[in-house]
Automatic annotation (TrEMBL):
It holds the Pfam family Peptidase_C1. It comes from Daphnia sinensis. SUPFAM superfamilies: Cysteine proteinases. GO terms for molecular function: cysteine-type peptidase activity. It comes from the Eukaryota. One of its GO terms (biological process) is proteolysis. Keywords: Signal. Belongs to the peptidase C1 family. Residues 1-21 form the signal peptide. The lineage of its organism: Eukaryota, Metazoa, Ecdysozoa, Arthropoda, Crustacea. The keyword Signal applies. Residues 28-85 form the Cathepsin propeptide inhibitor domain. This is Uncharacterized protein. PANTHER family: CYSTEINE PROTEASE FAMILY C1-RELATED. InterPro entries: Papain-like_cys_pep_sf, Pept_his_AS, Peptidase_C1A, Peptidase_C1A_C, Peptidase_C1A_papain-like, Prot_inhib_I29.
Length: 337
């Protein structure tokens, strides 16, 4: 993420009305304290405050709804306009449908209710010793690289006992470098890691907020922290295979998924997210790290890559079982060496 330094050299005198305007102003001033941003001019100040006021109205209306299943809150996205928000989403993504057909995998033999009842009611790896701290992709559509990496990191630690952070930057630089921050598909990235002989550690190949480098030896000649298995390295599930994902999670396998994103999702705070997509939202790759039920609503525990300041420590509970915003459409994981 391109970090902005809080340099307010020009303060705008705002005439505050009664009631709501005062509340908005107080919220704005609190926001500037909690989320320092760089404001160099009056025009910039006006733009950021206008963006904030739009999101603030959405948050206030949503949180006042007694039937809401989740709460919203201000975060780093509150002062961004729609074009800036799109930078965090995918421009390129290929469905796993063709991958499933290519691999011919059938991970679930029986998906009836009796199968689901045999599974644990709750699985949650958010605090597992093999789960790396939530990372920050910054203003770059590299979310697929982060989802792909989270799956490999967790699988590698579970199998080999190595809780090591792996390099998203290797993927951004070396796989489809022409896309730069346009992103790609996690299954494409896993294939590139196989060709590269593994994935480098973050220490050897640190993330630079998506600032890409030219493809070259540096992409390959870095110490590898993990390798994918020689046999059946990629596991694809058929679309809508809720039970298949649950089964993989019980086997300590994280699952990469892709979702449609709304403004409300970008300002999610806690609870079970249940807002449908309209069909024209941008796509975002994330990782399923658990499942459960909260107040009668089935959910996936989802790991995001928008820093720990997003949602509940970087995680979101996302409604399960109805393919909300495509969450049960593009499902894949890996086996490691």
């Amino acid at each position: 993420m391109v970090k902005l330094v809080f340099v307010i050299s020009v303060l705008v005198v705002v005439t505050i009305g009664a009631g709501g305007a005062e509340d908005v102003q107080a919220a704005w001033e609190k926001y500037l304290t909690e989320f320092p941003i760089g404001i160099q001019t009056k025009a910039e100040y006006g733009k950021r405050k206008s963006n904030f006021e739009r999101i603030h109205a959405i948050i206030e209306e949503h949180n006042a709804d007694e039937n809401a299943t989740y709460t919203m809150a201000h975060n780093q996205f509150s002062v961004m306009d729609s074009e800036e928000r799109k930078k965090y989403l995918l421009k390129n993504f290929a469905s796993t449908r063709s991958l499933y057909e290519e691999l011919g995998l059938e991970t679930v033999e029986d998906t009836d209710d009796s199968t689901m009842r045999q599974l644990p009611p709750t699985i949650d790896y958010r605090k597992d010793k093999c789960m790396q701290p939530v990372k920050d992709q910054g203003g770059c559509g590299s979310c697929s690289a982060f989802a792909a990496t989270a799956v490999v990191e967790f699988a590698n630690c579970q199998k080999n006992g190595n809780a090591v952070s792996l390099s998203e930057q290797q993927i951004v630089d070396c796989d489809f470098p022409d896309r730069e921050c346009g992103g790609g598909s996690y299954h494409e990235y896993w294939k590139s890691l196989i060709k590269a002989g593994g994935q480098a550690t973050s220490a050897a190949y640190p993330y630079t907020s998506g600032d890409t480098k030219k493809r070259g030896p540096a992409c390959l000649n870095k110490p590898k922290g993990a390798k994918l298995a020689a046999r059946n390295p990629i596991v694809a599930l058929r679309e809508g295979d809720e039970v298949g994902v649950m089964k993989l999670l019980t086997k300590k396998k994280l699952v990469a998924v892709c979702i449609g994103v709304t403004d409300k999702f970008m300002n999610y705070r806690t609870g079970v997210y249940t807002t449908p997509c309209k069909g024209d939202e941008g796509l975002h790759a994330v990782t399923a790290v658990g499942y459960g039920t909260y107040k009668g609503i089935k959910y996936w525990a989802i790991r995001n890559s928008w820093s720990a300041k997003y949602g509940n420590g970087g995680y979101v509970l996302f409604q399960r079982g109805i393919n909300l915003c495509g969450v049960e459409r593009d499902l894949a994981t890996v086996n490691v060496a």
